[in-house]
Design brief:
The chain is of the alpha/beta class. It has 4 domains: 134 residues, Foki Restriction Endonuclease, Chain A, domain 1 (FokI Restriction Endonuclease, Chain A, domain 1), CATH 3.90.241; 120 residues, FokI Restriction Endonuclease, Chain A, domain 1; 85 residues, Winged helix-like DNA-binding domain superfamily/Winged helix DNA-binding domain (Arc Repressor Mutant, subunit A), CATH 1.10.10.10; 171 residues, Restriction Endonuclease. The protein contains 25 helices and 18 strands.
């Protein structure tokens, strides 16, 4: 067990080492998921770059690139590429080089063709991030073709139709409709709005993307409601709504901006309610949406009902996993499943046997989560008895050349999650994301939010995520016992440095004294007056070094006992609690052990890295 934990921590330390822009590889492309690219006119300009002698192409060659891009950054090469009769341009030439040393994103020089196409707010061009977003948008909806082997983009036939169509014409509208309805996440958003009529971006975001997987986070709406109720000014409420969102929430906001421009949905503020103490409170979330009559009509093209022809779905290998440690492995597994299910109805056991014939060993619980996730990304998966079939015609999905980098392998983290899937029969599998987040050194906020959600929404604890300056990350209680929690998303294994140990000791003392002089924010008010017994906890992906010594030190100084628990054991504990095999009193006794809480479990033998 200790050996696997050490291997896992080392694996993540290597994985999350920050890459320079120039080191991004083909495998790092994430086509299929788009953020921060909104305006259709800019999309059309990006596509028109690839049409020889189009107005956009011409002004780039004769004016913008000569003025905005230096020779050392590729000026002359870019002009030559744009003069070709059949334009095929390397992705890096389109996107740009990123931010050179000595510059910020706001003043970095223009170094990519698409940067020069997109107008900035204070300058004539955009940075590489928006350029990349618009490129992913154009590739994801099928306007540009992408050659993975050469890492180049070219114009598709649909893209040529879009570029040639007169702006505002019926032809342009039809091409855009075909493109957007071929994009599964658009269909997912539309279908959710068709089912439930009026939804906020958080309600949609919670149901978009792969289940329990890094890269698809959503802020629980009840936390947004609590924040809106606590905000004292309109400015605070506006800032909360603008700045607080998960990755999936951002995807929803981006997709909805397209659909509003198409007239498929409308933006209609929604009043949401929730219980706060003994009373019901409400607040308005402006980023909420409804389906229009036009949207309800075009949605029929996704199912092929009546006289409406079903539009094939464009699914790229890249969209089948984004941030997960072993995303190439996950993409391959999911590609095999989708292709197998295009051929007819199959049971999970048949899928398992098929994957095994392809050298992929999986539990049926993992397969069932993938099937649920296919629906969550916008595919039509039909169940007949205990069999499943993908009803869509799938375009663009193919495995990359495995010979270029060897066959992708499953990480220890996925092995942990596979084990948990077979044991989590009461706890929602969306919380498997805690395993990913616990090792991601850049996801502290998401880790805290998901931990609080698990304890308060899935289980019966009361409390919340605090996670602000001079506050613990999470505080929960049940009956007369309270728990002060420090979450640490850490790629190398968390050793509990003395600084963090001192911080926990300070929280314990503040909670004892409860004086404004010690901390005017009075975070301890989160606990009910009936809570009289307290303990503390550290939660991380894994622990290393002398963390037990620091726990004992905190306990000796404060007179309060505590414990450490990793993400895997936290989920096993949650399962024991929800199944009723563990009582809450016994649960709190575990957090008074001054050691690491662990449940006996065994992983399958074999090499995974």
């Amino acid at each position: 067990m200790e050996q696997i934990k050490t291997l896992c921590a080392s694996f993540y330390a290597m994985l999350y080492f920050k890459k320079n822009e120039e080191e991004i590889t083909v495998a790092d492309r994430t086509f299929g998921w788009v953020q921060e690219a909104y305006i259709l006119r800019n999309l059309k300009n990006v596509v028109s770059v690839f049409v020889p002698e189009s107005p956009v192409n011409r002004i780039l060659r004769t004016d913008k690139i000569p003025r905005l891009i230096a020779e050392k950054d590729g000026r002359d090469i870019f002009i030559k590429e744009l003069e070709e009769e059949n334009i095929r341009i390397p992705y890096t030439h389109l996107k740009g080089k990123g931010t050179p040393a000595g510059f910020t994103r706001s003043n970095a020089p223009c170094s990519g063709i698409i940067q020069a196409v997109l107008p900035g707010q204070r300058k004539e061009y955009q940075s590489d991030w928006p350029a990349d977003s618009f490129l992913r948008w154009a590739v994801s909806v099928g306007f540009l073709d992408y050659d993975r082997g050469e890492d180049v983009c070219s114009l598709s036939e649909l893209g040529r139709q879009y570029a040639d169509a007169k702006e505002g014409s019926e032809e342009e509208a039809n091409v855009l409709m075909t493109a957007f309805l071929s994009y599964p996440p658009v269909c997912r958003v539309l279908s959710l709005l068709a089912e439930e009529e009026h939804l906020t971006k958080f309600e949609i975001g919670a149901r978009l993307g792969f289940l329990g997987e890094a890269g698809f986070t959503s802020i629980p709406q009840y936390m947004i409601l609590e924040g809106l109720l606590e905000a004292k000014t309109k400015e605070e409420r506006t800032k909360l709504l603008q700045d607080t969102e998960g990755t999936s929430d951002k995807y929803v906001r981006t997709i909805c901006s397209w659909l509003i421009q198409m007239g498929f949905i409308s933006k209609v503020p929604k009043e949401v309610t929730g219980r706060r103490g003994n009373r019901v409170s409400s607040a308005v979330i402006p980023q909420s949406y409804k389906l229009t009559l036009k949207g309800r009509t075009v949605l029929k093209h996704t199912t092929g009902v009546s006289r409406f022809a079903r539009i094939p779905k464009r699914v790229m290998w890249d969209m089948l996993a984004t941030k997960a440690a072993d995303r190439e492995y996950l993409r391959n597994r999911r590609t095999h499943i989708i292709k197998y299910l295009e051929g007819g109805y199959r049971s999970p056991l048949q899928i398992q046997e098929y994957l095994n014939s392809r050298g992929i060993k999986e539990e049926t619980e993992t397969i069932l989560d993938d099937l649920q996730s296919f629906v969550r990304i916008g595919l039509q998966v039909k169940k007949n008895g205990d069999t499943y079939r993908v009803m869509d015609e799938i375009k663009g999905l193919k495995l990359p050349d495995e010979g270029r980098s060897g066959i992708p392998v499953k990480s220890e983290v996925s092995v942990y999650k596979d084990y948990l899937r077979t044991h989590m029969t009461h706890v929602d599998h969306k919380y498997l994301i805690l395993v990913d987040l616990g090792f991601d050194g850049s996801s502290d906020r998401d880790y805290e939010i998901k931990t609080a959600e698990l304890l308060t929404s899935e289980l019966m604890f009361k409390g919340a995520r605090l996670g602000d300056t001079r506050k613990p990350d999470v505080c929960v209680y049940y009956g007369d016992h309270g728990l002060i929690i420090d979450n640490k998303a850490y790629g190398k294994g968390y050793s509990l440095p003395i600084k963090q140990a001192d911080e926990m000791y300070r929280y314990i003392e503040e909670n004892k004294e409860r004086k404004d002089l010690l901390n005017p924010n009075r975070w301890w008010k989160i606990f009910d007056e009936s809570v009289t017994r307290f303990s503390f906890a550290f939660i991380s992906g894994s622990f290393t070094g002398g963390f037990k010594d620091r726990i004992n030190l905190i306990s000796a100084r404060s007179g309060i006992h505590g414990a450490a628990i990793n993400s895997v054991n936290l989920l096993l504990l949650a399962e024991e609690l929800k199944a009723g095999r563990l009582g809450y009193e016994e649960c709190f006794r575990l957090f008074e052990s001054n050691g690491e809480i662990s449940f006996p479990f065994s992983l399958p033998s074999g090499d995974f890295c």
